[in-house]
Amino acid sequence: MRARFTLVAPELPDHLVADTADALAHVGWVGLQRRAVPMDGLVGLHLTGVVPPVTFSHAGHDHEAMVRDLLSGWDALGVSAALITGDLAHRPPSLLVMDADSTLLTSEVIEEIAEHAGVAEEVERVTSAAMRGELDFTESLHERLSLLAGLPLSAVEEVAATVRFSPGAKRLVDEMHEAGAAVGVVSGGFHEVLDPLAERLGIDYVRANRLEVHAGRLTGRPLGPVIDGDAKLAALQEWNAAHPGPTVAMGDGANDLKMVEAADLGIAYCAKPVLNEAADARIPFPRLDAAALLADIVT
Known about the structure:
The chain contains 13 helices and 12 strands. The protein is of the alpha/beta class.
């Protein structure tokens, strides 16, 4: 079985690279090859080898468990690490699906809207609990939107005009398109904010909530079904059916858990602990385009 162990960081000391290569050889990787790829203040290191079709045993652990042990502890060093197997070890992804708030974007948009309504503290409290997995997302969205009832739609438009992309967002989308992959954003946020932003980056798919508006003001209710964790998973599956092949999914909170677990490469981006624990890889620093290096599509 061909496999790849990838490290991404602003800097990778030589001793760290050597120790990682030795550890992989120790657990049975053969024919190990190293390839470094620099990218605008980041470097990706791909250690590619062959894992013989047998189960290795060491101190009571099988091969997969031993390799996954190598994935632990990198966050504290400011390094992103990923073990890539299956189709993604042989070919580029066909689809990237991202969350929006605190992933594609630097902030939680609903909290910025709440600033205009004077309820930022209350909304931030509910948002944080939902992203940690302590509250049902749908219930939390209804609670937060109810606090925004009566706010002029113009306040949402003002937020949409000032929201910022995470560092590396455009580079990531461009690299994915160059590799032949489609890019989708699925969010518990709002089409009213995301649609113009997605158009600026050339994102192929957007799925989000819609705000109910009456006489130019928010009613405090969503319009239509809420985009929760199940809806995010459904979007990944639907778009993957249109673009068959390996998938990458990335987010930061508990409502991203199902799509991150379902993807061939699930990435936790500057994420809450509940998602960090479940993801295949973690990006602990604010560079969204590190995902392009993890997926090995940067030449």
